Amino acid sequence: MSTLSAPRSNQVVTSLRQLILHGLLFVLLMVLGSGLSTLITMALRGFVPTYPGSSEIAIGLSFTLIAGPLAWLLWRDLKEKIATLQPADSAIWTLQAASVYVISLAMSAVSFLRLCSELISPTRAADWQPLLGATLGWALIFIWQYRILKSPKFAPTQLPSLPGALGSAFALVLFALSAVVLVELALDEIISPQPTLIGPASALPSLFSATAWTAGAGLLWWWLWIVQRVHQAVDEFTDFLFVLLFLAIPGVLTLLSACLLLGLVLPLPGTAGLFSENLSTRAPLLLAAVLVGLMVWTYHQAKGASRPTRVAEASRQLISGGALALGASGLGMVINALLAGLATSYASETSNNVLRYGLGLLIVGAIAWVYFFRPQRASDPASRRVYLVLFFGCSAVVALISLLVIAYRVFEFLLVTTGSGSLLDLVRAPFGWLIATVAVAVYHFALWRSDRARMSTETPQIPTPSAASTPLKTLMIVAPYGCEPLMDELLKLHSAQLHWIPRVGQPPEKEKLLALISEISTSFTTEPSGLMAVISPSGDIEFISLASPPVLAE
Hints:
Layout: H1 2-44, H2 56-78, H3 87-120, H4 129-150, H5 162-191, H6 204-227, H7 236-265, H8 275-281, H9 283-303, H10 309-343, H11 349-373, H12 385-415, H13 423-457, E1 473-480, H14 484-490, E2 496-503, H15 510-526, E3 530-535, E4 541-546
Parallel strand pairs: 1-2, 1-3
Antiparallel strand pairs: 3-4
């Protein structure tokens, strides 16, 4: 038994060693980035300390002169073994490289945009040296990490698209936030224009500053997403990040902003005086969030059409789940507000706000759920089994918490509370959550039973002898990760028994990859037994004919 467990123990020790070394390299690079930023800042100031007794120069020198050589020595030892790393160790290297890549990119980009913004604003155009020092110091770390990731010798083989995908997600978030601020300021100026365009009370400096942030973040996103071809990376992990970061989260946040905006402008009895105030103070931010979120989601939804169908299905189910959660929350808030009207003889401002925002959540959530979930259309029961299981799990948690709070409030009312107040007023909030959860759970339980009945009655068709007369031939594809579009097309060959063997390297360009489909299909059709196709990262292909299996004598 000790002999069998020895290789596994050695692999664990090796992976632990790689984790410690790459973690140490990450820390050293972070310290080095801080030291370089501080030294460049002091150089721009002529090595004059900010105040007497300042230790900035000592910190910059110690961080740079200690962390720099140690990082170089450690990287010199690690780079010799990168090409021969096991998959688990290669994943550790990818995580470390992606972390340094994204953090250095974020620090440098944010510092540069802050510098541009403060130089535009005449009231804060001072003390620019720390921002420029941070921009240049972290840019040096980013350039070094970027060159390593682009090197064929040191590029990660596991999760190779992780650094670019995370960098693009950061740039997109930065662009979206900057665009929201820009649109909000523009709407504020349209709704409540300032008397002068130039002066201390003018909104032009803030508009120019937000424009600089938006343009810079948009340029950074364009460089990462388009120039670096992150949008062309197609593999399972990239599809997961694309669905989560670029479709589901923007879609749900856009729906939430739309819910709050609708709740803000809904006309309710007794709230007419607050309408103009809400429109001028809160509506611009929410409207800006809706417009920017809709723009981001629409663009990536269109880009998702070129990806496998599972991407569109997963994003549709995630957004429909988010819309359902918003609608259920709104239903619970509406029930809460109606019970508040029964518990008291007058409607307070709090109950009016609960009713208003509850109606907004309920209306927008219900419309979005109908649009994305498509309950009026028949769908494949197997495609939404995971969705239903996750929904029942979340519903059980919400229902359990609601029941616990209701029980606590009942016993508190009976045993502890001695002042005024009704039991209905104490339990109306958790009771509303419970009713909403039960209402949507009943529908999905009926849907789950219907899907289970359909799956049990649909028996797989047994092929007739004439349909099964075509023998299966082996088709082996040796290609790097990221060749899923090619695999999806080759799966359509009914006489092929497809096998994919991943190889080291980057995937070919999408155009070259799709051009290989007809070449592989033609060669496989003319091959009597089986075929192996070896695809290189450059897009070249080599065919190897496979021998037919030997026929055993009776």
